[in-house]
Structure formats: structure tokens, C-alpha cells
UniProtKB/TrEMBL annotation:
UniProt entry tagged with the keyword Acetylation: no
Annotated signal sequence range: 1-29
GO cellular component: CatSper complex; sperm principal piece
Region entry Disordered, spans: 1116-1152
Stretches with biased composition (Low complexity): 1116-1133
Name of the protein described by the UniProt record: Cation channel sperm associated auxiliary subunit gamma
Domain CATSPERG C-terminal: 897-1098
Domain of life, per lineage: Eukaryota
Record-annotated CATSPERG Ig-like domain positions: 744-871
Length: 1152
């Protein structure tokens, strides 16, 4: 830009003033606040308290070492019968500030009351068929710990804070947010990516080694200097490990598990074969890794025409160790020219696409990754794309997968024999295999003149050809982008908008999207362009005058992140912020750094340099800078509590209190902290049992038997009598249900059927207020045109937005009320968190794109645009539970009695067969803590059963119909009800909370008929019951499915079996009676016979003893005979007297 005459004297002043305005406020403002930042590393148990130690996150199994620490805690609210486990890692937390060492700062912070607060967010898993979909967080307060190094001071030289690093099954990606408790120095909140690296293994010498290859420790400049940048492809928010290829003539990749906060250069262990042939035209061989894509547990690479994958070892995902031992080569007989990523997972799987060339030209190999298992299918199935669109020769340039429509869009180049090649967008429906040509792209580029142009076919064109190179799809916006030496965007795949700001001389190499409303574009010449979605204005960020000015200012500030010689390696978004991975050369030494792209600063410079006017004041020209932002203040108000819409479950935990005067923790107290956090998350995972607890809280069972002794535990701690000097406060481990909004829109919004989200936007109009003499109506009319608020919906057929305006004339402001509602029309019923429809809402103040910024302590921030992803369907965290407490109470009231089983099970009470059964259910919100009676309709089915827990079997579909349908005619019904409402074919009873109850039948052909009792008590039966509201409840998108066991006792016997038992019992009873009578009649005879027999036996014994003791001498013999005769005569007389005595006695009795 040139100024003539005296205007040229203004130019130096202009650039100087721009430079001053662009300098960050912290460079010229008084620095009352020190620039401090958090530092976080991982430590194993063995390295706690050791300075300078950090560990890699690869161990995933719990440890059993902490159980011994809990044994001495006898007078504490812990369960001695519980086996306590722990996680394998701690988070070690420090911070540092400019000008002082970290050790001194940490001591200062501790002495002033600083305690870091760590918030760990677990990413939901991909495979929702195996794992529950939930948005889970745990907030922990860090515990101070003294270093184990020798120290001459009495108290502390070096210290740090520690918290357990929890692990959750199904999650390998964790965000760690560190903030302050509000005391001590001011430290900005900071987020860290702490992910599990499943591509490491421990060697015999206790060192770690990569399983995918060998680590290269020397990052020489040749690998990065003047090497073209390449895209970073991965499954958004799901990949714990990111990889980046593109290093010339080397089979190297950059690998990171912390989003490039640190990284490794790894040489891959692949065979590097080249199987080029006549059907696979490969011009030359190179070792370069061209395409690299990371998914949740699997890495994919392409080298030449070969494709490899490697599955990591993730026990938390697969529940088994089935990681790859080496790189697996797939599609061995195919010639692959490109890998295309699929940025989002769906249906419990991730996807990848391989484009073929050579003999398979016109086909796509569609890859599916489920639980680390990779499979490919060739699409289209019947015929190639070329045959489907009826052309002779064609080539697929790019492909995108649209999961919501289960559709594959392909950019196809068609060879024309007489004219230039042209391109078509071809759609392939995977559900109903069919090919459709969606649109044909124009050959020449349209003429310029406007920011954008709707291509209708009637516009004028230039002679410059359009050369498409790829496509990009944003599912939240339903936005399809086709890029090359142009940029087209479409919301219906047919009508395209041409963005005229992008120069036709450049060619786009790849796109980077934040999926939160903005995107960046990288060209073949390494230019960086920026586009805010919802607008058509494109901004050139690099190279630009603003970039040069910013670099100079950073070098003046001696920043270590900028040099004059640098090469961009890749560009990517993280947490809606644009980052660069750059190789810096300084004094012949190079290093890789990750730095934030200063988008707001560059846009501010662009605004100041492009929009200015020279005003004449006397003989001088002045340079006033006009702020083109239509407002001075923008605030979000009346925001509802976020958890209802974000579905974020959060637990809170504090470390156990140490009773030592210093307050520092030791290894035992940290181990107790580990065990308590592990147990807390175990209670969370076990809470999804079908029988609802009396109190809707996962921690209720933990403390229900210990709360009576709370004052006793506190008394012991107050008198320093607690075991192991550790006091566990039961109120420190709880679930939070009432988080408050933080004056910003949530990260995402979940909407159920007919629900709405409301908030307000307060805007203060820029400019002076209108004079008071103006009427109120004229003032309102003057304010309204200055600011307008628009709401853009990606799916207006599914969502509706209502905006109401209120003019606050006395405050020179306008208040907009925004209500976003679901239209009840775009989603069928689904399981909680499954198959959600992705869409979005964009709230924008008209005329603010690239014009409105707010200065904050972290730099300028763009204002006026709010993009919120919206997920329509059944929100995560809702479930149906059997309300056993109210069911027992109501059944006792209706039946006038309640009889439990003989063997009482408090977890599964019994119900009597002859009683009418009245079931009740609860809708429990695990996020907000709400629990209320289920008021909708549902279908109850018995889907399994058995007389014992061990003999329960699942019923077939045909059996389920016979056992439950009122239309059954085979005498197989298990139960019936007096309700007459039924579903469609096959008919089942529809029930509500006001139903008349269930009557148990167990007819002749049912499985519970004629149950054989195993004891003397009545027969029992366990029914496996399924309760579902699918298809019968129109009040929600949620398909509530509850399966639980119902214990029924007192089942009747069949008539035949009852008669048989009666006959057998009667026969046995009569036989016993007859036996008793016979016994009583024969008893005297038997007794007399026994006495006679006994007398005779005695006589025989006596006579035998006489002959046995006869003497051999005659004298002795004679004497013995004499004595024996005498004794025999005497004995005979005695016997005669005894025989006569009863006769005399009888005579005496008869006389009396």
C-alpha cells in the first residue's frame, strides 16, 4: 500500500502505532502478577519423593500392595473384610514462576496455604457394546509430600504434591486439569493430556522399549528442515497415542502420548517390501511413511503401496492382552495409493479407508476396527464405481464416511476422451448398496468479485481450471468441503458455495478442523489460512505482515518458541486451540517445540492494518483507529446448571488427614489415598445393579454402617489417637450433583425428547447513549439496529431456536433470550448414550467475525461467536431400576401380608406365588442424583428362569412369546394381568405404574409348572425378567432396558404330582399306624418270650459252669458233689418259692 504526498509522512507513525498496539499487555503493563505455570509428571510407587523422576504411563493393572496398609486401620471407617487395591501411578505436581526456582516457589505456596486441585476427566470408550457410555470426572485435592533427598533444614527443602492417577476400564484417554484452591500465588489453570501408551513393554533389565520399533535419540536437522508439513490424522478425542510420518527416506514416525508435550522418534520394525508389478504402477521405492493414522488402540501406516497396522496392549479396553507382536501387513495383494481417515467413531467401531489403484481402480477398501480387531471389505460390492456411474475410466481421489447416514462419499476423477478430466461426487449407501452421482463439479473457477458465490451454473467463469484434491466432512455442521486450488462448501452435497477469498494460484494440502466452529488450511507452499465457520471470509495468517510483526516482538521478548529459521512439521487443534509443531534451528542446533498459534493476535493486526481512515485536522492528517466491533460488553447470563445438559458425573475426594504437626504425608498415607480412590471408583462401576438402593448414591453402601461411629472417629483424631496417624473423613468422598455454570456455554449439550436449553446474551452497544430528550421508543429503535443476534442450526428439522429481544435503554444495552429445543422428530429410541445424532448450534452477533476481541490474562480472545455441539438422543447417565423398597411396601399393603423365603436374602427378597405382584420402577439420573418413579409405559417379559440360580437358562424368542403373550393358546403362560392394552404383533401386555398387578399362573406347558421341591418347603423359582419401554413410551428417546432376577416361592404342585404325593404320604402314614398297632399288640408276647428265653439261657450257662469247675481228685469231687447237691436243692427250693409268690400276691390283690 502506498500513500502519496503528505500522506506518506503518516506511514511510519502507522506501523509504529500498530506495533505498540500489538504488543501483549503483559509487556508494557505493570506486572503485579507473576507468570506461573503448573508442572505435572507421573511417578510409580517406587519413585515417589525422588527428585527429577518421571515414568511412562503403560501399566494398567491394579496393585495389591496397599492392602497391608489398611490392616492396622481398625478404628477407622474402612472395611476390614474388603481387599483394597490401588492404581499403579501417582501424579506429581509442582509449579514454577519467572525469576525463582521451582523448589522455593513450591515451599512458598505450601506455606501460604496453596493446595493444587486435580480434575481427571475420562474419555468415553468407542465400543459401547462392551463398556458403559458415561462422562466421568473425579476431582482430587493434592497431598503435600517431602522429598526423600537429604536436607539440612529441620522441616523441608524440596517438596511436591501428589494425587493418585486413576484408571477406568474402557478409557485410555484422560485429561488432567490442574487448578489452585484459591490460596497462595495466582497460577493459571492448565490442562495436560495423560494417556495410556499401549505400545511400550518392560524389558528384563526394567527398562521400557517400544513394541512398534526402536527409539532414535538423535533428531538430526535433515529429518525436519525444509521437509513439507503433513496432517495429523487420528480419531478425534479417542486416540491415546498420536503418530506422524513424512520423514524423507526414513521409516521413522514421531510418536507421542501427551499430544506432543513430549514425543519420541521411532524407527519402525517393518519389512519395507516393494511388490510393484504390471498391475501396481509404482514409479520408485522410498522408505518414507506417507500416511499415518491413529485410532483408539491401533496404528495404521502406508509405505509405498503397502499398508500395515499395529494393535497396542490395552487391558483396560480389551480385558485381555492381545496386542500385536509385530506390524501386520494387510491388503497384501492390493496396490494402495492413499489412506483416508474417518475422524469420528460410530456404532462401537472406528473406520479407515484405503484407496486402490492398478487392477482394483475404482474400489475402496473399507476398514473396521472393533476392540483392536481389524477387518476390511471391498466397496462397492457388485461392481466398481466406474461401472456404477457408467464411465470407462475413473479414479477415486478421496473418500469420506458419513456415519449418521451410513453413507460413503467419493470424489471421482473421470477421464474424458475429448475434453479435460472432470470430477463428480458419488454416493454409496452401505445399508442399501447403491451408487448415486450426487453432483458434478465445474471445470473452470468462477469469476471473483464477492466473498462467496453460490454456484448455480449461471455465473461467469474464468479460464483457470478447478483441480480438486480432497474432501472433508464435519458431522456437527453437516458441512462438506471440497478443496484443491479452491474451496467449496455444501450443506446438502449438491449445492456448493465458492469461497472467493482463497487465491486460485495456491493449492490446499490439508485441512484442520476444531469441530467447534473454526478451521485452518495449509497449502502446498506452507501458507496458513483461517476460516470461521458460519462466515465466508478467509484470513491469511502465515506468511503475513502481522506474522512478521509478531515474530519480531517475540524475539525482542527473548521467547524460546520463535526463531528466524523454523520449519512447520504439522498443524493441529487441541481443546479448540490451534497449535503448531515446529522444528527450530538456533546456532546450528535444532529442536522440536509445540506452540500456540496466535490466531487472535494476527486477526487483530489484520483488522487494524486494513480498516483505518485518515482525518484532516487543520493542516495535519490524523490516524484515528475505529473499533468495528458493534458492542463493548458481551456476557452470557441465566445459564442453567450444566450437569443436566453436559451429563458430566463428578466425584470429589480429599486426602486423609495426617495428624503430624507438619501436615506432610508419608508413603503409607499416600497408599491409603490410593486405596480410597480405587474403592470409590469401584463403587461407581458396581452401582449399576438392577435393584435400586434405598438411597440413590453410589457411596451410600460405603458408609452406611460407619456413619454412626463418625463422632467416635473424629474424637480419636482430635486426641491424636487414630491408627497410623491417619484420619479418614467420610464426607470427603462424595458425588457432586450441583455444579454451577461458569458464565460460558458448555462444551457440549445433550438433548432428550422435547427438552430445551435456555440462556441469555447481554450486549452493551458501542457508542454514546442517546440524549435523554429522545423518547423511549426512538431510543429502542436506535439501539436495535446496532446489534443483531443470529442463531444458526445445523439441523433445523430437528432443532428449533427462539430468540427474544429486550432493549435496556437506560443501560444502552440489549438482552437476548435464546431457547434451543428439540422438535421430537429426528431420533428413534436408543440405549443411554448410544447412536446419538450429532448436530450443532451457532450463536453469533452479526458483524463480529474477525472484529471483536477481549483482552484476558491469557491473551486476547475472540468474541461474538459461540458454537456448541448438540447431541440428540438418550443422554448418558440415565437408567431404569427395580424399586424394591416401594414394591415391598406396596405389595404388603395390597396383599395384607408379606411372606419372605425361609432363607432370607436381603439383596433379593422373595414374593409369594399366590399374591398379586405389583412391580414399581425408578428412573435414576446418575448425573444429577434425581430418582423418581417411572411414569411411562413398559413391556414386561420373562426371558429366562430356573428352579435354582445355577439352573437358570435363557428362553428362545418362540418361548418368550408363548410364556408372556396373552394371545398364546398353548397353555404356556407364566403370568397374566387384568390390563387389556397390548402391543402390536407379537402382542404383549403394556403396563404402567398404575397397572392392576401381575397374577402368576405357571400353566401346564410353562417351565415353572410342576416344579419339584428339593426340600420340605414349597417349590421356588427364579424368573429372569426384562422390562423395556421401547415402542410403547413416546415421552423419551431413551430405550430403557432392565433385566433382573425375581425370586418367587410357594409355587403349587400339579394335580398329578399332588395326588401322587398324597397317595404316597397316606400310604406311608397308614403303614406306620398299622405297624404301631401291631407293635403294641405283640409287645407283651414278645417280652414274655424274651424273658423265658433269657431264663433258659441262664440255666444253660449255669449248668455248663458246674461241669467246667469239677475237681479231678475224688475227695474234691465228692465234696463238690455234696455241695452241689446241697446248693441245687437249696436253689430248687428258692425257685419254687419264687414261683409260688406271685400266686399268693395275686390272691392278696383280689381280696383287697
Amino acid at each position: 500500500m502506498a500513500l502519496c504526498g503528505r500522506n506518506s509522512r503518516v506511514l511510519p507513525a502507522l506501523w509504529a502505532l500498530l506495533a505498540v498496539l500489538l504488543v501483549p499487555w503483559r509487556l508494557w503493563a505493570i506486572e503485579d502478577i507473576e507468570e506461573c505455570t503448573w508442572q505435572v509428571v507421573l511417578n510409580k510407587f517406587e519413585t515417589v519423593g525422588k527428585n527429577g523422576m518421571s515414568d511412562r504411563f503403560f501399566s494398567q493393572e491394579p496393585l495389591e500392595t496397599v492392602d497391608n496398609v489398611f490392616r492396622p486401620l481398625v478404628d477407622a471407617p474402612t472395611d476390614q473384610d474388603e481387599k483394597y487395591l490401588s492404581f499403579p501411578y501417582y501424579l506429581k505436581i509442582n509449579y514454577s514462576c519467572n525469576g525463582e526456582s521451582s523448589e522455593a516457589q513450591v515451599r512458598k505456596g505450601h506455606l501460604t496455604g496453596l493446595k493444587p486441585v486435580v480434575l481427571v476427566t475420562f474419555q468415553s470408550p468407542v465400543n459401547f457394546h462392551r463398556w458403559k457410555i458415561e462422562q466421568l470426572q473425579i476431582q482430587m485435592e493434592a497431598a503435600p509430600f517431602r522429598s526423600k533427598e537429604e536436607c539440612i533444614a529441620e522441616e523441608v527443602c524440596v517438596m511436591s504434591w501428589y494425587t493418585p492417577m486413576p484408571i477406568k476400564n474402557g478409557s485410555v484417554v484422560m485429561r488432567v486439569d490442574v487448578s489452585s484452591n484459591g490460596l497462595g500465588p495466582f497460577i493459571h489453570d492448565k490442562r495436560f493430556q495423560v494417556n495410556i501408551n499401549g505400545f511400550l513393554q518392560r524389558q528384563q533389565d526394567d527398562t521400557l522399549q517400544f513394541t512398534v520399533g526402536n527409539e532414535i535419540f538423535n533428531l538430526i536437522p535433515r529429518y525436519f528442515v525444509n521437509v513439507p508439513s503433513r496432517p495429523l490424522w487420528h480419531t478425534v478425542d479417542q486416540a491415546p497415542v498420536l503418530i506422524l510420518g513424512g520423514i524423507s527416506d526414513e521409516k521413522f514416525i514421531l510418536l507421542t502420548d501427551t499430544s506432543f508435550r513430549d514425543f519420541f522418534l521411532v524407527e519402525l520394525n517393518i519389512d519395507s517390501c516393494w511388490v510393484g508389478s504390471f498391475y501396481c504402477p509404482q514409479a520408485s521405492f522410498t522408505a518414507t511413511i506417507y500416511d499415518a493414522i491413529a485410532t483408539e488402540s491401533t496404528l495404521f501406516i502406508r509405505q509405498n503401496q503397502l499398508v500395515y497396522y499395529f494393535t497396542g496392549t490395552y487391558i483396560t479396553l480389551h480385558e485381555s492382552n492381545h496386542g500385536s507382536g509385530s506390524w501386520v501387513r494387510v491388503l497384501a495383494n492390493e496396490c494402495i495409493k492413499r489412506l483416508c481417515p474417518v475422524h469420528f467413531h460410530s456404532n462401537g467401531s472406528e473406520y479407515i479407508m484405503a484407496l486402490t489403484t492398478g487392477k482394483r481402480e475404482g474400489y475402496v477398501h473399507f476398514g473396521t476396527i472393533t476392540d483392536g480387531h481389524v477387518s476390511f471389505q471391498l466397496l462397492p460390492k457388485q461392481r466398481s464405481v466406474c461401472e456404477g456411474i457408467e464411465v470407462v475410466n475413473c479414479s477415486i481421489t478421496w473418500a469420506v464416511f458419513i456415519a449418521d447416514d451410513y453413507n460413503l462419499l467419493m470424489l471421482v476423477e473421470i477421464e474424458a476422451p475429448t475434453t479435460r478430466n472432470y470430477f463428480q461426487v458419488v454416493s454409496y449407501d452401505l445399508g442399501d448398496p447403491s451408487l448415486t452421482s450426487v453432483s458434478t463439479l465445474p471445470l473452470p473457477q468462477p469469476a471473483r468479485g464477492l466473498e462467496f458465490l453460490m454456484i448455480l451454473g449461471t455465473e461467469s467463469y474464468t479460464s483457470f481450471p478447478m483441480v480438486p484434491k480432497g474432501m472433508f466432512y464435519n458431522p456437527y455442521k453437516n458441512l462438506l468441503l471440497i478443496w484443491g486450488n479452491f474451496l467449496l462448501q455444501s450443506y446438502n452435497y449438491e449445492n456448493f458455495i465458492y469461497l472467493a477469498d482463497f487465491p486460485k494460484e495456491e493449492s490446499i494440502k490439508y485441512l484442520v478442523n476444531s469441530f467447534h466452529g473454526d478451521m485452518a488450511i495449509v497449502t502446498e507452499t506452507e501458507e496458513i489460512w483461517y476460516l470461521l465457520e458460519g462466515s465466508y471470509r478467509m484470513y491469511k495468517l502465515f506468511p503475513s505482515k502481522g506474522w512478521g510483526m509478531y515474530i519480531n516482538l517475540q524475539m525482542m521478548h527473548q521467547s524460546s518458541l520463535y526463531t528466524s529459521n523454523e520449519t512447520m512439521v504439522t498443524l493441529f487443534y487441541e481443546d479448540s486451540k490451534l497449535y503448531q509443531l515446529v522444528y527450530l534451528m538456533n546456532n546450528q542446533k535444532g529442536r522440536l517445540v509445540k506452540r500456540l498459534m496466535p490466531v487472535e493476535e494476527l486477526l487483530m493486526y489484520h483488522q487494524l492494518s486494513d480498516h483505518y481512515l485518515l482525518h484532516q485536522r487543520g493542516n495535519q492528517l490524523t490516524l484515528p483507529f475505529t473499533n468495528f466491533c458493534p458492542f463493548t460488553v458481551i456476557r452470557l447470563r441465566d445459564l442453567p446448571n450444566p450437569q443436566v445438559y453436559t451429563r458430566q458425573e463428578r466425584y470429589q475426594a480429599h486426602p486423609p488427614r495426617m495428624l503430624e504437626p507438619s501436615g506432610f504425608h508419608d508413603e503409607n498415607s499416600l497408599a491409603v489415598y490410593q486405596g480410597l480412590i480405587y474403592h470409590l471408583l469401584c463403587l461407581h462401576s458396581k452401582y449399576l445393579k438392577p435393584y435400586a438402593d434405598p438411597v440413590h448414591d453410589s457411596t451410600w453402601r460405603w458408609w452406611k454402617n460407619k456413619k454412626l461411629n463418625r463422632d467416635y472417629y473424629f474424637y480419636l483424631a482430635s486426641n491424636l489417637q487414630s491408627a497410623s496417624n491417619v484420619y479418614i473423613d467420610m464426607t470427603s468422598y462424595e458425588k457432586i450433583y450441583d455444579l454451577k455454570a461458569k458464565h460460558e456455554l458448555p462444551e457440549r449439550i445433550f438433548l432428550d425428547k422435547g427438552t430445551s436449553y435456555s440462556f441469555s446474551v447481554f450486549l452493551t452497544v458501542r457508542g454514546h447513549s442517546i440524549n435523554l430528550q429522545d423518547g423511549g421508543a426512538s431510543r429502542a429503535e436506535a439501539l436495535t439496529p446496532k446489534v443483531d443476534l443470529g442463531v444458526v442450526l445445523a439441523d433445523p428439522g430437528c432443532l428449533e431456536a427462539v430468540v427474544k429481544e429486550e432493549v435496556l435503554t437506560n443501560r444502552n444495552s440489549v438482552l437476548f433470550w435464546v431457547t434451543l429445543s428439540d422438535k421430537r422428530s429426528c431420533f428413534d429410541q436408543g440405549i443411554s448414550g448410544h447412536h446419538l445424532l450429532k448436530t450443532s448450534m451457532l450463536v453469533k452477533v452479526v458483524g463480529t467475525v474477525g472484529r471483536c476481541f477481549q483482552n484476558t490474562h491469557q491473551g486476547p480472545r475472540m468474541q461474538g461467536n459461540f458454537m456448541v455441539p448438540v447431541l440428540i438422543g438418550c443422554p448418558p447417565g440415565k437408567r431404569l431400576a427395580f424399586d424394591i423398597t416401594y414394591t415391598l411396601e406396596y405389595n404388603r399393603l395390597q396383599n395384607k401380608h408379606y411372606f419372605d423365603c425361609v432363607n432370607v436374602d436381603p439383596e433379593m427378597p422373595c414374593f409369594l406365588f399366590r399374591d398379586i405382584f405389583y412391580p414399581f420402577f425408578l428412573i435414576q439420573d446418575l448425573v444429577t442424583g434425581d430418582s423418581g418413579s417411572f411414569q411411562g409405559s413398559y413391556v414386561l417379559k420373562v426371558i429366562g428362569g430356573g428352579p435354582t440360580m445355577d439352573t437358570i437358562r435363557e428362553y428362545s424368542e418362540e418361548e418368550i412369546y408363548r410364556f408372556n403373550s396373552p394371545l398364546d393358546k398353548t397353555q404356556s403362560l407364566i403370568w397374566t394381568t387384568k390390563n387389556t392394552t397390548t402391543t402390536k404383533d407379537p402382542a404383549f401386555n403394556i403396563m404402567t405404574h398404575q397397572s392392576l398387578g401381575i397374577e402368576w399362573l405357571c400353566l401346564r406347558n410353562s417351565p415353572c409348572h410342576d416344579t419339584i421341591p428339593h426340600t420340605i418347603f414349597a417349590p421356588e423359582f427364579f424368573f429372569k425378567v426384562l422390562v423395556s419401554n421401547r415402542g410403547v413410551d413416546k415421552s423419551t428417546y431413551c430405550d430403557y432396558q432392565l433385566t433382573f432376577l425375581l425370586h418367587i416361592h410357594g409355587l403349587p404342585l400339579s394335580a398329578k404330582r399332588a395326588l401322587l404325593i398324597l397317595m404316597v404320604s397316606s400310604s406311608v402314614f397308614i403303614g406306620l399306624v398299622i405297624l404301631y398297632i401291631v407293635f403294641c399288640l405283640l409287645l407283651p408276647v414278645v417280652v414274655k418270650a424274651c424273658n423265658t428265653l433269657r431264663w433258659k439261657i441262664n440255666n444253660i450257662i449255669t449248668s455248663e459252669s458246674y461241669y467246667t469247675y469239677t475237681s479231678p481228685s475224688r475227695i474234691v469231687s465228692g465234696t463238690s458233689e455234696t455241695k452241689s447237691k446241697v446248693s441245687s436243692s437249696v436253689s430248687s427250693k428258692v425257685v419254687e418259692e419264687k414261683e409260688e409268690a406271685p400266686v399268693e400276691t395275686s390272691k392278696k390283690h383280689s381280696i383287697t
